[in-house]
Amino acid sequence: MTGTELEAQAAPTSAWHMYRAMVGVGLFCGLLIVTVFQATLPIIEQNKAEALQRAIFRVLPEATASSTFSYDESKGFELLEGRSDGQELLYAGYDDDGALVGLAIEAQGMGYQDVIALIYGYSFSDDAITGIQVLESKETPGLGDKIESDPDFLENFKRLDVSLGDHASKLANEIVPVKNGEKTHPWEIDGITGATISSVAIANILNGSAQHWVPRIESRLTDFQGGE
Amino acid sequence: MATATKSSTDEFMKGLWKENPVFVQVLGMCPVLAVSNTALNALAMGLATLFVLVMSNIVVSSLRSFIPKEVRIATYILIIATFVTVVDYAIQAISLDLYKALGAFISLIVVNCLILGRAEAFASKNTVARSALDGLGMGTGFVVALFCLGAVREIMGSGSLFGVQLFHDAFQDWVVMVLPSGGFFTLAGWLLLFNWLKQRKAHREDRATLALSKEVV
Questions:
Q1: CA torsion angle for A170, A174, A175, A179 (degrees, to 10)?
Q2: A68: containing domain
Q3: Residue A53 lies in a domain
Q4: Is the residue at A136 inside a domain?
Q5: Contacts of residue B36 in chain A, CB cutoff 8 Å?
Q6: Fewest CB within 10 angstroms: A104, A199, B32, B144, which?
Q7: pLDDT (tens digit, 9 = 90+) per residue, A132-176?
Q8: Quick one: closest CA in A to B80, which residue?
């Protein structure tokens, strides 16, 4: 008999009992987690899809139906069946007559604490952003999270100008954040007192995304026709 | 039978007042300070902790003769982490908005010393029924304490309760109350109140005993 075995025998609890407890409890816990995961997965997916749909129709109030598009630099915008991860997606909104009213575009960027993901509506008739919905944020509750609820701040996005400049390759005016109460132009965003970083982050996210997408969308408008 | 019922009630009630996990034992301070900035967040966090506490107490207690003492802490943590994961999925399924508000803190329930503390100090030595009652009492005490903090902080910091505005527009929000420092101020206030009540009770009891002994003499 080796020294180790003797020590094991002398120990108050045998290694077998410890293994049995750890492995047994581990198995029980693993099974429980897998069961709950499987049971909740369809509900969670459905919740996420519904939340996205709600967000799309909230940022494009005139739309009654929507279709998902993916973008490829060479092929342009393509209609996508179902949702696929890892691609930049845009959602085209159509009214009752099947006419294109605007696009809902996902965008994200760094906020105060973590990445802020949002979706905004781009309306063709106004050449403007017509609403935003924050999809994910970990901004300070009570301060930074006012980007989702502050009525004065959300008023900025009723009609935020993103019309294209002379060259049609970039916006005529960059979206810029200004101090609370100092907004004078339709492309400026009135900040929130006490949540400067979060409101500036929103302006930067929107500016970056609109600078990228609006010229591409306007040059390939026909891609979206008949997508409904 | 009567004593058994009474002791079960005591088992439940002790967590609410005499051994309140927050105001008396000062346990689980991380969620208490971090998630108590609005009443709804505090209530949801408290309920999630209550569920994990009751379930882990039940499982730890029913496996108490099966788990050797050398590996007990690791096993308890495994059990607690499992129920936290269950709560995490459940909240995502119930409401994504709620998950958005609590997401970062739910996983931190694993390291809430209140839960491991009850598993180690109570559930590993008592029957399943008593452990469940203990978990229910302590958990309810935790919910009440979190709500006390959350309500005060939301009312003073945002002028609302459960998102409903309470004051006129002229009310100037006391922003510091929803910031981390507000958590410390509010907790200090509640601890002050609890200790004052406890001292007053002790004084009264002392005086009563003194009066009684004088009468006897």
A1: 180
A2: 42-224
A3: yes
A4: yes
A5: none
A6: B144
A7: 998 888 787 677 888 888 888 888 888 888 888 877 788 888 888
A8: A29
